[in-house]
Amino acid sequence: MQPKSNIVHLPVYQPGKPIEEVKRELGLTEVIKLASNENPFGCSEAAKQAIMNELANTSLYPDGAAVALTEALAGHLGVGKDQIIFGAGSDEVILMIARAFLVPGDETIMADETFPQYRHNVEIEGAKIIEVPLKDGRHDLPAMLEKVTDKTKIVWICNPNNPTGTIVTKDELDAFMAKVPAHVLVVLDEAYCEYIDDPAYPNGIEYVKRYPNVISLRTFSKIYGLASLRIGYGIGTPEIIRYINQVREPFNTTRYAQAAAKAALEDTAFIAECRRRNAEGLAYLKAEFDRLDLRYFEPYGNFVMFDTGIPSQKVFDALLRKGIISRARWTHYPTHIRITVGSAEQNRKFIEALEQVLQELAVQI
Ligand SMILES: *Cc1c(COP(=O)(O)O)cnc(C)c1O
Predict the structure, then answer these.
(1) From which residue to which does any coiled coil extend (predicted)?
(2) Which atom, in ligand 1's list, is nearest to the CA of 88?
């Protein structure tokens, strides 16, 4: 057998460690997972009810075009119904964009480091990846612009950037869009946009309306708390959305996901509450990092990346033994840990564990 040569070296995705596995391996009864930017407050009760209402239809295929959800979302966002495409998570929208737009020889530009799914899917299509180092943990859009050639098909902008949590501002994005050639598709991955109310943060929808070569990616996995259901979406011109629809699998999102997403969208009180509690959590964590003299990148989503000053694997392992699952081992940030903002209680327990861990490790050094 001979698979595609460009996939042979690809790593299998390493997810955040599951809670049950950590409990079993370390003999712990309480484990807090702050590794995958999931919503610590769960999801809307209305979304759970919507899933239960769909159980009776389990034997029937879902609506492949997700008509009811598309209508609700188009109204919510103020875009046309032909401007939205759903995927099994925005991960699948990233996959479909790569599949629809890239052939071997094409070039695509992304930050280093950023969300790994861009690179992963580009490699599968055999296109060329041009990575531009972050500057102080932030996208360097002028440097990315300099890398654009006639062969550039896609520029990926993760805003806020995962893992660093920093944003590209309106001014920076405006300057970039003013110069980027029209043949380049600009992907704005806005997985955490619902958490942000900073006026400097650009709203991708406005760019979709102004520029025919922009697509915004969003998800129900983060603030909406529906990560297990796998549903995310892209918003672009009808032309871009049609191309992506042409490579979409017929029934790529489930009945449960569509129904829950529609209910979650309508429960605006739950989202407002999550946004408020996340902002409180961010303020608490920032103050604690300041107190502990730990540097961090300015966070905008529901996660913070901070510098422990110690090889991050050591800190990760020590936190794990205290029942905290974090995220470490970043290529360019060997001493950084990324932590999801949890509930107030989880954040307190995390800081308590971190303080102990840093003391223990300092003694060892
Ligand atoms: C979580 C995340 C996604 C994708 O989430 P899905 O669950 O696939 O919708 C996309 N981009 C970024 C930057 C993320 O952090």
Answers:
(1) none
(2) 8
| DSSP 8-state symbol, 88 | S
* Residue 77 domain flag: yes
Please work out whether the CB of residue 301 comes within 6 Å of at least one atom of ligand 1: no
Q: Is the peptide bond before 206 cis (omega within 30 degrees of 0)?
A: no
pLDDT of residue 9: 87
Q: At what angle do helices 344-364 and 268-291 cross, to 10 degrees?
A: 30
89-143 pLDDT, tens digit per residue, is 999 999 999 999 999 999 999 999 999 999 999 999 999 999 999 999 999 999 9
Give me the mean pLDDT over the 51-57 stretch: 97
Q: Are residues 308 and 351 in the same domain?
A: yes
Does the CB atom of residue 296 touch ligand 1 within 6 A?
Answer: no
296 strand-pairing partners = 306
Decide: residue 233, CB within 10 A, 0-12 exposed, 13-18 middle, 19+ buried.
buried
Domain range for residue 150?
45-267
How close is the Cα of 204 to the center of ligand 1, in Å?
A: 16
Domain count, the chain: 2
**Rounded alpha-carbon distances, angstroms, from residue 76 to 70, 93, 191:** 10, 20, 17
Query: CATH code at 322?
Result: 3.90.1150.10
Evaluate whether 186 touches 157 at the Cβ level (below 8 Å): yes
In this structure, the answer to whether residues 89 and 197 fall within a common structural domain is: yes
Q: Is the pTM of this model over 0.85?
A: yes
